[in-house]
Amino acid sequence: MAHGSVARAVAGMLDDAGFVYVHTAPPSALDCAEPIVCLQGHFERDGRMEGEERGTVAVSVLVVRELAVDAEAGAEACELALRRCDWEPWADCGRYRIVALDTTAPAFVERDRSGRVVWGFEVRCTVARSL
Known about the structure:
Blueprint: H1 5-16, E1 22-23, E2 36-49, E3 52-65, H2 68-84, E4 92-93, E5 96-103, E6 107-111, E7 117-130
Parallel strand pairs: 1-2
Antiparallel strand pairs: 2-3, 3-7, 4-5, 5-7, 6-7
């Protein structure tokens, strides 16, 4: 689900916070040299209630930069912005409704095929899904 609705919501939050080149699918290095990419994982159910189920959808946020120091600083800034943002305007996102948001600490991920440095973290969104 690379283009998932929760990933689009997280990308929108980053865009609202002033970040540029935010994508929900990895762009070509020729199209965007230093993107921020939000990739949605699968829904994991935690519980079921009358008319809905609740669970978690993790969104990986990857910050791609030419320099390691810039990738680290970018990931730190994105994670801080998401921890401090008002996510409620983004709560309704397609099949899911975000009811809580938490982040992991940013960490080095890899050096990609283009030689760029990737730092990332996860945004764990607690969501409700209507049945």
